Amino acid sequence: MDIRPTTDQDLDAFVDTVHAAFGLFRSAAAEDGGGVLWSAYEMDRGLLAVAADGRPVGTAGAYTFELTLPGDVLVPTAGVTGVGVLPSHRRQGVLTAMMRHQLTELRARGEVLSVLLASEAVIYRRFGYGPATYTARLTVPRHQGALAVPRAGAAAGSDSGSDAGSVELRQRSECGEIMEEVYDRYRRTQPGALSRPHRWWSSGAGQPPVSRAPRYVAVHRDADGTPDGYASYVLESGTLTVDETIATDDAVHTALARFLLGHDLVGRVVFKHVPTGHPLRWQLQDFRAGEVTGDTDWLWVRLLDVPRALTTRGWLTDGELVLDVDDPFLGERGRHLLTVRDGKAECVPTDREPDLSLDVSDLGSVYLGGTTPSTLVRAGHVRAHHPGAAALADALFRTERPPHCLHWF
């Protein structure tokens, strides 16, 4: 078996192989509103595993994204995608060989992080990836969708106070540029968010609202008429399903939620991607009206260069932490002294006794602030070497708001 990089001439072979790996056909992959994902493939970043007879048996690709880190830091990131092995060649080391080859290439490009959406949760941890952002569905019956009056009042200075803007209804086909611009503003300040390159929007790659599938879009404008939020939705059989709600602040999100929950001829409203700890459920007059389902992982993170990754993100709390990080897939282990002062970090090798010992996949889980180190200590995955170690790590990795990723790739 040989693993080789792909070119534009390999697109059909790549697409056919990854579809066969998942038991899909091209026509089926674009149904239900999904766009033609491979129109965004970057063939200069793909890999093909080729058998001795020249037949492709495995694929792995990557997109070029920016990931927003805590502290509003934007970092180039590889979005791993299109990973598959034909059923006839599984459990023969093909996937392991491709992933090792890919990680080596990503490091050679100077990238410090890679991310992916895991088709199965048990596959990618062994390659050093850990779940780092989470998402859930919130379903609200229309007749219980009234929002409560904020008890703190607008004078409290909350972003969720009064809204002087307006909401207008558009169709997806006529507001693509608005959505692209608003999403780009949003993702630059939301930890865990990925960029959506222009070619995704222009080609309709992926899922709604990026794809050109018919959708209504509620566009929010501020008092000056500038778009600062949107919600993409479809109404079928009495259920209004919201693909995503993008808002530059809480007041805009509240205005869009009020619009959606007040829609006529609707039995229930389903918000597909609600981040952990979002206040929308608390804003309902009837707290029990909001049913949370489908609580699951979304973005998985893999650190390719531990010191560079730790010094790239922003920090809220000063302190020192010694991390003993094991990377069994790449056969590496390092002990790092993380020192944070005034929002910036230094990370250097050290012989000091560790505060925490952890796998690189667990470091990926806590890196964006969506998983507390103490949770992984209590789960038995991270070892705390003294009683205060977990609390110290929790304080250091704390972020102003939970990371969230909406982009599907």
Automatic annotation (TrEMBL):
InterPro entries for this protein: Acetyltransf_17 (IPR041380), Acetyltransferase_Eis (IPR051554), Acyl_CoA_acyltransferase (IPR016181), Eis_dom (IPR025559), GNAT_dom (IPR000182), NAcTrfase_Eis (IPR022902), SCP2_sterol-bd_dom_sf (IPR036527)
Coiled coil: none
Annotated residues for binding of acetyl-CoA: 83-85, 91-96, 119-120
Domain N-acetyltransferase residue range list: 1-152
Domain of life: Bacteria
Active site: 124, 409
Cell membrane keyword on record: no
Family named by the database record: Belongs to the acetyltransferase Eis family.
Subunit-structure text: Homohexamer; trimer of dimers.
NCBIfam families in alphabetical order: PRK01346.1-4 (NF002367)
Designated name of the protein: Acetyltransferase
Native organism taxonomy: Bacteria, Bacillati, Actinomycetota, Actinomycetes, Kitasatosporales
